[in-house]
Design goal:
The protein is α+β, with helices and mostly antiparallel strands. It is built from nine helices and seven strands. The longest helix has about 55 residues. It is elongated, with a radius of gyration of 38 Å. The structure holds adenosine-5'-triphosphate (ATP) and magnesium ion.
Length: about 350
Amino acid sequence: MKLRTKLSIAFFSVIIFPPILIFLATTTRIFKHSIPAYNTFALNGNAYMSLFFALILTGIMVTVWLYHSMISPIKQLTEATRKIAEGDLDFQVELPNGDDEIAALCSNFEEMRKRLQKSAAETMENESENRTLISNITHDLKTPVTSIKGYAEGLLDGVADTPEKRDKYIQTIYNKANDMDRLINELTFYAGIDTNRIPYNFTRIDVSDYFGDCVDEIQVDLESHGISLSYENALKSGVRIIADPEQFKKVINNIIGNSIKYMDKKGGKLSIRLKDAESAVIIEIEDNGKGIAKKDLPYIFDRFYRTDSSRNSSRGGSGIGLSIVKKIVEDHGGRVWAESDLGSGTTILMEFRKYKEK
Ligand SMILES: Nc1ncnc2c1ncn2[C@@H]1O[C@H](COP(=O)(O)OP(=O)(O)OP(=O)(O)O)[C@@H](O)[C@H]1O
Ligand SMILES: [Mg+2]
């Protein structure tokens, strides 16, 4: 019942009930035994006294009714606001029966409390992730810093006593500094996308054209690592997807970077395959590197996850490359997964919806 209806009922009750009660008291004498005064006064024609009792009775009834429907929910809301002000969000606002404005207010308030509770939980989770991030940055930056210090000391102490040795030491320092640079860039980038600070520049890209250009670039990099590339494109011409070309490049670079990093064979091979799957495009990037154990496969896209073998190897990274891949692919509405055989190689597969002109 709407508040307006309740107030109207209360108003009419105050107007209508007293005359009815007076009428009953004076004509049928129903209060004769229970309230003798009533009877006496009514018989004496003392309508004022009858009116007084009738008004009190009506007033009590109306007050009790309004109190239950309005004051107790408002009291509850007052208590709830106090709790929220104190930072306590773990309670529940009881929703009163009915569909009046107070019930709507309580329901909206409860909705607000739930959202605040959710966002508080998310903030706490982000804070804990940030703490993990900081501890991992510290950990991962330690490795190249230690090397740089070691090699610089070698130069200062004269341990590098031949020009070749000195060149090697300087080159190593340079490489380690590059590692640090890359690591810091990756972490900054990741912290950025996690809080949605990096805006995506989505556009329609022609998949075949895009990969055609990519393959040329990748080929140079792979060749310098002694890895041969094969490229198969089974897509019809003009197949497009909605993507941010810059971010998409990060996805490919991370995947191929892993293939290079975890290549353990002399005749390294990498295959890129584009396949048609009706309304979607499947991209497969396969290498014949060291592969990933079955037990590790479900976790490789988790942030900071590294398999034991890569943790123990000097080539192991910080374990965030594939989590960046996953984040970007999912922000593109796609999905990414991996198939692998330990010892024989890994395939990273991605699926994106085709863009269809309306
Ligand atoms: N192509 C691959 N071959 C073998 N193992 C792989 C391959 N790609 C990923 N992995 C395994 O998955 C783990 C997670 O990969 P991810 O790219 O997230 O981290 P990373 O390469 O260790 O570090 P980062 O990419 O941050 O430098 C790696 O540590 C590695 O063990
Ligand atoms: Mg990686």
